[in-house]
Design brief:
- Helices cover about 45% and strands about 0% of the residues.
- By secondary structure, the chain is an all-alpha fold.
Length: about 100
């Protein structure tokens, strides 16, 4: 007989740190725990920077050229969305795509 295994969901270390902050502030059942985490003054706590469930050290290092290319790409995406009608197009936007 084989027993079917259930998949185990593992938390990332950053999410586990977030859960520890929630526990420290009284748990999810407590009133307004999110505000208390945001206003936490325990800057000496080793996981203080991770209290929002994000890694503060994980930022992409982009050059100015890369930033400009990403901005141009997003401008094109937003323009295409306006043309398709997801945001709301005007006639000036439609003429700009012909060039």
């Amino acid at each position: 007989m084989t027993q079917q295994r259930k998949s185990i969901k593992h938390k990332t270390p950053v999410k586990a740190m977030r859960d520890k902050c929630i526990e420290c502030m009284g748990g999810k059942d407590s009133e307004d725990y999110r505000r208390r985490i945001k206003e936490c003054v325990s800057v000496d706590c080793p996981i203080f920077a991770f209290r929002f469930g994000k890694d503060p050290h994980r930022h992409p290092n982009l050059s100015n050229d890369q930033r400009k290319r990403m901005a141009n790409r997003m401008d094109k995406v937003n323009l295409a969305r306006r043309i398709v009608g997801k945001i709301g197009a005007n006639s000036n936007d439609i003429d700009a795509t012909d060039t």
